[in-house]
Queue: 2 jobs
Job 1
Amino acid sequence: MAYDEDLADRIRELVGAEPNLTEMRMFGGLAFLVGGNMAVAADGKGGVMVRVDPADSDELVESGDAEPFVMRGRPMRGWLHVATEHLRTRKQLARWVDLGVGYARSLPPK
């Protein structure tokens, strides 16, 4: 399944002015990287994949809108998946984009 291009455009609107922003196809979707670090991606399975501080993962999952991102049958700490149903409004999407971009900014550039 290809990623949702409308969702990618909505993400692009939110991060367009971010310095050191690049886009890259990865994980079956379109990822947005800040300083070479993945921040958020329009996921090929629908919704978004968001990179967050691993220390915040459990609390964000408990919010009910996100679930751990699972890769090869293993939940990846610091990586979350948010389903499309939780991204309908600009405010809902911006919350997750801001978390991903904020964490990516905190990492050393690649």
Job 2
Amino acid sequence: MRALGLILLGVKVASAECQCPPFTPKELTEQATYVFNGEVWDVAIDGKTRQRVITFDVNDTFKGDPKPRIELKDEADGKECAIDFHEGESYLVYARWQWGATRTSRCWGTKRLQEAYGDAAALGPGDAAKAKYYDKLRILCLGRRDTACCLASLKAMRRGGYLPRPDGGCPEDMIPDQMRCGGSYVWCVPATAERQTR
């Protein structure tokens, strides 16, 4: 009888574990309104809904344009997939605008930053890293015969948030683009994007 109780207890524990659909970081990014990494500034309880409200200070952005300080609700609050957010800890956050509020969830990809290494390759550099990279590329444009074209191409890249084409060529589903003048950088854009070279 005791063995049966342990087996049933084991079944109950197993069913209570969080089971999320197996989405890739790219699929999670496509479904998200915002993707960013940030530090938890505050965890509070909403007086009306009794849901936890997690306030983040945004450090770097990978999709969308969230405010520097943003409040989110955990979609799974009170359930087995809820995230145990702690003040001062950093997270990679996938957030969606739903039902008049910005929400997040473990099953939408949100996790502690130290657990997010697998997402890094799919997300690429964030806005802060890109801004530093563009500044370096700008310096490389200066003092050249074709400076004007080089700077124009950098402006187009920055506007779209694109990066120069890697040595191995553009990734799958992307094509090269550049300005129609000598000295232009070449960068990769989605195959469906409007191009400078058209």
